[in-house]
Design brief:
With 315 residues, the chain is of the alpha/beta class. It contains 9 helices and 14 strands. The strands form 4 sheets. It has a 7-stranded parallel sheet with strand order 3-2-1-4-5-6-11, sandwiched between helices. Strands 12-9-14 form a 3-stranded mixed sheet. It binds nicotinamide-adenine-dinucleotide.
Length: 315
C-alpha cells in the first residue's frame, strides 16, 4: 500500500473538530486545501469554532449514521472525547462509553469494506502513563498505568486503533498529548489549568492549587499540537505512538506566577488538598516525534502565555 499521503489526502474527517484542539487541526487542513468534514455533537465544542469552509455534521460518534461520513474520507483525525480527568471518576460509564465505544464506532466506519480511509490518527493523552516520581521526561516506553478512568479509556482506545488499523492495512498514529494551552479552550472546572487560573484571576478570585503546586507539567501550545497532527498525516507512522509535548517542565506554582504576572494579579494561590487522578510529574520526551514526524514545537510557555491570555476563556 502506498503510505505516502503527502499529496493524496483530498478529504479528511475530524471528530471533535468543533473543540479546542480539533478546530485548530481543521484550520491547518483547510490551509493545505484539504476538504474537511467535522463530526461533533457540540456537547463542548461550538459551531462558531468550525470554519465556514468545513462541513459540520452535528452528530455523536456513537451514532452509526456518522459511518458514511467517516468512510468517505482519506484520513481520519479522531479527537472527539469526554476530556475531563477529574470528573472521570464520577462519570466513568459516560466517559468510557464515549471514549472507548465511540472510538470503536469511528473505527468501524474507517475499516468497513467500502472505506477510503488510509490514515487514522488518534488523540490520546499523557494520562495513560504511570506517575513518574522523578521530574525527568518520559518516553513512549514508560510504564502504562493510568491513574484515572479517563487514562484507562484513552489506553483502551489506543489499543483498538492499533489492532483494527493494522488488521485493515490502514496506517495509524497515536499522539499522546501533554497539557495543551492556547486560545479557545472552553471553560470548565476540570480542564486546562491555565484557562482556569486566568478566569479566576480576571474575576478577582485567587485560584486554588491542588497539592503543594510543585507537580510538574509539560505545556504545549495548541498550534504546535495541531502541526503534530498534520505531520503525523504526512509521514508514514506504522501504528507508532508519539509523545506530543514541549519537553520542558513547569511547576503549577510557576504557571500561577506567569499568569498572575501577565494579568497584574497580586494575590497568592489558595492551596487545597491534592486530588486523585493527578500525576506528580508529567513531562514528555518528544524525541521520537521529532525524529519520525519532524515534530518541532515552536512556542515557549513563558513567551506566549501573555498573548494567549488576551483571548483565553470568556464566553
Ligand atoms: N487539552 C488537553 O490538554 C489534552 C491533553 C491530552 C489529550 N487531549 C485529547 O485531545 C482531544 C481534544 O481535546 P480538547 O482539549 O480539544 O477538548 P474539547 O472538549 O475542546 O474537544 C472535544 C470535542 O469533542 C466533542 N465531543 C465530545 N464527545 C463527543 C461525542 N460523543 N460525539 C461527538 N463529539 C463529541 C466535544 O463537543 C468537543 O468539541 C481529546 O481526545 C482529548 O482527550 C487533550
Amino acid at each position: 500500500m502506498d503510505r505516502d499521503l503527502s499529496k493524496t489526502v483530498k478529504k479528511a474527517c475530524v471528530t471533535g473538530g468543533a473543540g479546542f484542539i480539533g478546530s485548530q487541526v481543521v484550520r491547518n487542513l483547510l490551509a493545505r486545501d484539504i476538504d474537511v468534514v467535522v463530526i461533533d455533537n457540540l456537547s463542548v465544542g461550538r459551531r462558531e469554532n468550525v470554519p465556514a469552509a468545513a462541513t459540520l455534521v452535528e452528530a455523536d460518534i456513537l451514532d452509526s449514521a456518522v459511518m458514511d461520513d467517516i468512510a468517505g474520507c482519506d484520513a481520519v483525525f479522531h479527537l472527539a472525547a469526554r476530556v475531563a480527568i477529574r470528573s472521570s471518576f464520577e462519570f466513568v460509564v459516560e466517559d468510557t462509553t464515549a471514549n472507548v465505544v465511540g472510538t470503536a464506532n469511528v473505527l468501524r466506519g474507517a475499516t468497513r469494506a467500502d472505506s477510503r480511509v488510509r490514515k487514522f490518527i488518534l488523540a490520546s493523552s499523557m494520562a495513560v502513563y504511570a506517575d513518574s516520581p522523578q521530574p525527568t521526561p518520559i518516553s513512549e516506553d514508560y510504564t502504562l498505568q493510568p491513574v484515572s478512568p479517563y487514562g484507562v479509556s484513552k489506553l483502551a482506545a489506543e489499543m483498538l486503533v492499533r489492532q483494527m488499523c493494522d488488521q485493515s492495512g490502514i496506517d495509524s498514529a497515536v499522539l499522546r498529548l501533554f497539557n495543551t494551552y492556547g486560545r479557545g479552550q472552553a471553560l470548565s472546572p476540570y480542564v486546562g489549568v491555565a484557562t482556569i487560573f486566568a478566569n479566576a484571576m480576571r474575576e478577582g478570585r485567587a485560584p486554588s492549587i491542588f497539592g503543594d503546586g510543585e507537580q510538574r507539567r509539560d505545556f504545549i501550545h495548541v498550534e504546535d499540537v495541531a502541526q503534530g497532527f498534520i505531520n503525523a498525516m504526512l509521514h508514514p507512522t506504522e501504528g507508532k505512538v508519539f509523545n506530543i509535548g514541549s519537553g520542558q517542565a513547569l511547576t503549577v506554582n510557576q504557571v500561577y506566577s506567569a499568569i498572575a504576572q501577565a494579568l497584574n494579579f497580586d494575590q497568592p494561590p489558595v492551596y487545597a488538598e491534592a486530588v486523585p487522578g493527578e500525576l506528580r510529574n508529567s513531562i514528555a520526551d518528544n524525541s521520537r516525534a521529532r525524529q519520525t514526524i519532524e515534530f518541532n514545537p515552536k512556542h515557549v510557555f513563558a513567551d506566549t502565555i501573555a498573548g494567549v491570555l488576551e483571548g483565553v476563556g470568556g464566553s
